[in-house]
Amino acid sequence: MALLGIAHVADDCNQSFVPALLPYLIAARGLTHTEAGTLVLAQAIASSVLQPAIGQLADRRSMPWLIALGLALAGGGVALVGIAPTLPLLWGSALISGIGVAMFHPEAARFANYVAGARKATGMRWFAAGGNVGFAVGPAFATAAIAAWGLHGTLAAAIPVLVVGAAVLYEVRRLRTFVPAHATKRTGQGTDDWRAFGTLSIFVVVRSMAYFGFVAFVPLYVVEVLHAPAAVGDGLLTMFLVFGVLGTLSGGPIADRFGRRTVLVASTGIAAVMTAVLVATTHGGSLPLAIPLLAITGFVFVASQSAYIVLGQEFLPNRIGLASGVTLGLAVSLGGAFAPVMGQIADRWGVSATILAAGALCVMAAAAAFALPADRRGERLQRKPGKPNAESAA
Predict the structure, then answer these.
(1) Distance CA 319, CA 59 (A)
(2) What is the pLDDT of residues 299-344, one digit of tens each?
(3) CATH for 194-376, among 3.30.360.10, 1.20.1250.20, 3.40.50.300, 3.40.1180.10?
(4) What's the pLDDT tens digit per position in 198-229?
C-alpha cells in the first residue's frame, strides 16, 4: 500500500504541474490565454474519457505493469511540455500525460482495493491521500524546477515517475499475489448494483463541482473579500488542501466503523454548514477567523474520498477497474467542467456568491449520498480475532 500510495503521489502531481506552467508558456511561447487553457483541457479529456475504458480492460485481465507504464507517460508527457516548440506539439505532450494518468488510476486503485484487506476504506485512505498530496505539491514542484532550469526544468517531471515506476515493475510479481481467486477464475463476487453506482456517480460529480469551486475561488475570496495579498490566498488554498489530506486519512477508519454512506452524508453536509458560516462571519474582511474555518472545511469535505472510491468498487464487485475509472476519472472531470459556471456566478454576484454556490452543491451531494442504499456491515468488515486475512498474510 505504501508503494501504491507513493505512486499516486508521483502520478497526480503531473495533473497540477501543467496548470502551474501556463504563465511561463504564455511568456515564452507567446500563447494566448485560450491556447494555454486548451493544454489543461487536452490533459483532462485524455485522462477522463479513457479511464473507464482502461478500467474495463483491466477487469478482464490483470495488468499491474500498466501502473508503471501510466506513470512513465504521465510524467514523460509533462517533461516534454517545456521543450515542445509549437502549439500542436504542446497539445500532443499534454495528451500523452493525460493518457498516462488514465492508464494509472484504474489498475492502481484496483490493486489498492486488493491490498487493503478486509478494512477497505482504512487501507484505501493511504492510496487516496497520495493523490491529494501529489495534486498539492505539483505546483510547488513546477515552480522549483522552472526556477532552477527555466522551461527545460519540466524534464525533472520524468525523474520521480521513472524511479517509482521501476519500483512498481520490481514488485509486479508480489502484487499479483494479492489478486483474489474470484478475479482470476472469473467466478464473480456478488451482483453489480448499477443503480446504486449511478447514484454514487451523481454524488461524485456534484461533489467535484463543489471541490473545483473551492480550489479555484478560495484564493480569490481571500484577495477580493478578505483584502489579503495574493500570496496569502495561495497559502490558504495550500492549507485547505493539506487539511484535506488529513481528512482523507481520518475518513477511512471512520467509514469502516460507521459506514460509507454515513461519511459521505456527514462530510458534504458539514462542509455546507461550514461554508455558510465562513461567508456569514468573514464577509466583512476577517482573515484570522477565515483561517480555522477554511481548515475545518477542507478537513471534513475531503474526508469522504476514500469512502466513495471503496463504495464504488463495492457496488461493482465484478468491475472494480471500471468503478475506479469512473469515480477517479470521468465523474471528477465532469465536475470540473462546471468551473466556468462558477466563474459566471462570481462575475455577476461576486466571489462570496460562488463560495455559497459551492456550499449549495455540498447540500445536493449530501442528498445524493443519503439516497444510497444502507451499508451492508457484515460484508464491509469481516475480521476474526487472532486471524489475519489472506491479503495481510501475503
Answers:
(1) 6
(2) 999 888 888 888 888 888 888 878 877 877 777 677 767 777 888 8
(3) 1.20.1250.20
(4) 999 999 989 988 988 887 788 888 888 898 88
